[in-house]
Amino acid sequence: MSPVRRDQFEISPKGITHKPTGASFIPDPGEPGWGHLDPGQLGNVLPNGDDYEPHEVDAMMQQLWIEYVAANPDLFKTPRLGHSEAV
């Protein structure tokens, strides 16, 4: 099995992706804890021979995403209806 490392993930407000396999989580707008999981090539041996344990990728992805959301709460706020921000 290939080791899962933090530097293999790309994280932005639009979601998190395990670059080697393409496995990704895309959050619903305004709800960073809910969204769509795309397994990409997770569970398959990649053309270069790398083979990642799906539960290890999933665990690291969840941990990194939780850390990212906690460190960037303002990125996930949605405007409340009927309220406007002061300029």
Verbal overview:
The protein is an alpha+beta fold. A hairpin with a 2-residue loop joins β3 (23-28) and β4. The protein is built from 1 helix and 4 strands; from the N terminus they run ββββα. A 4-stranded antiparallel β-sheet has the order 1-2-3-4, covered by helices on one side. It has one helix at 54-71; strands at 9-12, 15-18, 23-28, 31-38. The longest helix is centred in the last third of the chain and has 18 residues, at 54-71. It has one domain. The relative contact order is 0.21.
Trace the largest sheet across and list its strands. 1-2-3-4
Structural class of the secondary elements? alpha+beta
* Number of E-state strands: 4
Tell me, rounded to a whole number, the average pLDDT.
90
Give the terminus-to-terminus CA distance.
53 Å
Biggest β-sheet description? 4 strands, antiparallel
Helix and strand run: EEEEH
Compute the number of helices. 1
Q: Stretches where pLDDT falls below 50 for ≥5 residues? A: none
Shape: elongated
Percent range for β-strand residues: 25-35%
Gyration radius, in Å: 16 Å
Helix content: 10-25%
Question: What is the total number of structural domains?
Answer: 1
In short:
The protein is α+β, with helices and mostly antiparallel strands. Helices cover 21% and strands 25% of the residues. The longest helix has 18 residues, at 54-71.
